[in-house]
Specification:
Strand order of the largest sheet: 1-5-6-7-2-3-4
Structural class: alpha+beta
Largest sheet: 7 strands, mixed
Helix content: 40-55%
Radius of gyration: 33 Å
């Protein structure tokens, strides 16, 4: 390792009159300090820069889980040094938590579902990056539903072209509008959920925010009110209270008429 004139002058000044052993010891100490300084500088440049923390990932995953949705559609695109098939934007259809179909977002031609991920799969990718740990993880999430809208992962600084990124957008929950508890029936229970969170900010579907604007308000009540008779096929055959009441009145009328006819005879 070459030394500057100033370093030579410092060594001479310290060593002068102190003997050869001290001088050699001081020189070795200086080399150790220089080596340690260089190592710390390199370490500072190569230590992980995990912008995404485990706590943040857990919080966003919990927010997504509160939506309770196993049925949704969204557009997903991967960016990497991969085969072109891996980076095509796809409209992904998920039913019961599984990918059922993927079509090209531009041409609507079918794509290989094996090349795409569910939202839970995106969370798994981020968890894998944290556990590795990756050198750099940058992620953004939907403020209302919590799913990852974009993220970038650089696993190893010294390796080129192994970076991976995803972009997810236009996610639509396949739920009945107004069905806050996702039981496939829009009823008084959903109204109670809306009523308990009305005029609150930072809410989501589970809190009666059916418009997805992060606020439970009159607009969401209008959604509930417009769909409160919507039911799944399991409950479609259940008569409305008004129908039951009319049927009861009709039955009472028939019974009364028979009694009158009986007395008339």
């Amino acid at each position: 390792m070459s030394r500057s004139p100033e370093e030579d002058a410092l060594t001479y000044s310290v060593c002068q009159g102190r003997g050869l052993a001290f001088c050699q010891s001081f020189t070795r100490w200086r080399l150790c300090v220089l080596g340690l300084t260089a190592w710390l500088a390199i370490a500072a440049c190569t230590s992980p820069t995990l912008a995404l923390t485990q706590a943040e990932l857990d919080a966003k995953r919990d927010l997504w889980n509160t939506s309770g949705s196993m049925d949704y559609d969204y557009v997903l695109q991967r960016s990497c040094f991969c085969h072109p098939d891996f980076i095509q934007p796809g409209l992904v259809e998920i039913r019961a938590g599984m990918i059922t179909a993927v079509t090209d977002a531009d041409t609507l031609q079918p794509l290989d579902p094996e090349l795409f991920l569910t939202v839970d799969g995106l969370f798994a990718e981020l968890q894998r990056a944290i556990d590795y740990p990756a050198f750099d993880i940058q992620a953004q999430f939907d403020s209302n539903l919590g799913y990852p809208t974009s993220f970038f992962v650089d696993y190893v600084l010294e390796i080129a072209d192994e970076e991976m990124s995803y972009r997810a957008h236009d996610l639509v929950l396949s739920a009945i509008p107004g069905d806050a508890n996702l039981d496939r029936v829009v009823d008084d229970t959903d109204f109670e959920i809306w009523n308990g969170n009305k005029f609150s900010a930072g809410t989501n579907w589970r809190h009666g925010d059916f418009t997805g604007d992060g606020v439970t308000d009159v607009l969401d009540f209008n959604v509930w009110n417009a769909h409160r008779v919507s039911q799944s096929s399991q409950t479609a055959s259940v008569p409305e209270p008004t129908s039951c009441w009319l049927a009861t009145l009709g039955l009472m009328f028939c019974i009364a008429r028979k009694r009158i006819n009986g007395f008339a005879r």
